[in-house]
Amino acid sequence: MEIRVRWRGLDRETLTSPGVRLSYLLTKENIDFPFPCGGEGLCGRCKVKFLKNPPPPTPAERRLLSPFELGEGVRLACCAVVEKSTEVELLGERTVVPDDFLLDLASLVSPGHPPREGVCCCALDLGTTTLALSRLDVCQGARISVEVMANPQIVWGSDVVSRMGASLEGKGEDMVRVLWDLLLPKLEGTSYLVVAGNAVMETILAGYPVDSLARYPFESSFPGGEWKEEPVPHYFMPLVGKFLGGDAAALLLVLDLMEVDRPALALDLGTNAEVLLLTHRGVRAASAPAGPAFEGVGITSGIGL
Ligand code: FES
């Protein structure tokens, strides 16, 4: 019988005999799907959705899944035993950075804006709290200057959750305007700007809605990797996925981490922190709000202000 597995960019078909447990099949296929309780049927976190022929729910699935989920074909990979050909969508987070994303990064150039002698470009590290604007000579590969300043969007909240809330309340255009008001005078004489920010910051600046980031599936409607011509030509670094934004992509690119020959850990500890672990099995990445931990924002005991 044939089983097709889909998981955020992964699309795999495999043949197997009836009666196989889905977790066994995923492991056999080297699909790095997480089983937080070790496949004991205790945590209910290894959710998958059967798009065809869902197997009858097991007692553990009846306990851990809602009647609505069961009716929609949702099952637990560590419990479901597959008896018929089917298609399964894995619902867990995929934290492995896909190989093709890394290849795209490796070949990243400036489409339409090739480096020319004497051309200046700027790179913006678009942080939730802080902006770092570097002026670069792209032919020489040299940084001419860097200016660090506060992100004026802070009036709409100090973390990405508040910014998403403001955007959902219709403040997105105002947030974009204050940012360009600050940046444009500093970009005079610049041919183009490259922007690397977390998923929320890039999505808001690109003018896309944040609904799908703020709620399930927690995925930006803006993939990044795009040029915009107004108000100045600017390029958004591609978003890795979920809350891993263009800053994580820039980290991979700039540090040339694909070349490392032993396990390495890269940390970008800002208001939103990205952690990238590189091993021979690929790159694993995660992000979490770190501002309260490192800046004392909103903490009322311990290191709070
Ligand atoms: S891994 Fe915990 S229920 Fe499946």
UniProtKB/TrEMBL annotation:
Q: Say which domain of life the source belongs to.
A: Bacteria
Q: Which CDD domains match?
A: fer2 (cd00207)
Q: Which residues form the 2Fe-2S ferredoxin-type domain?
A: 1-94
- Gene3D superfamilies, per this entry? 3.10.20.30, Domain of unknown function (DUF4445) (3.30.420.480)
Q: What GO molecular function annotation could you give as one example from this UniProt entry?
A: iron-sulfur cluster binding
Q: Which InterPro entries match?
A: 2Fe-2S_ferredoxin-like_sf, 2Fe-2S_ferredoxin-type, Beta-grasp_dom_sf, Corrinoid_activation_enz, Raco-like_middle, Raco-like_middle_sf, RACo_C
Q: Which Pfam families match?
A: Fer2, RACo_C_ter, Raco_middle
**Protein name according to UniProt:** DUF4445 domain-containing protein
Q: Which organism is it from?
A: Thermosulfidibacter takaii
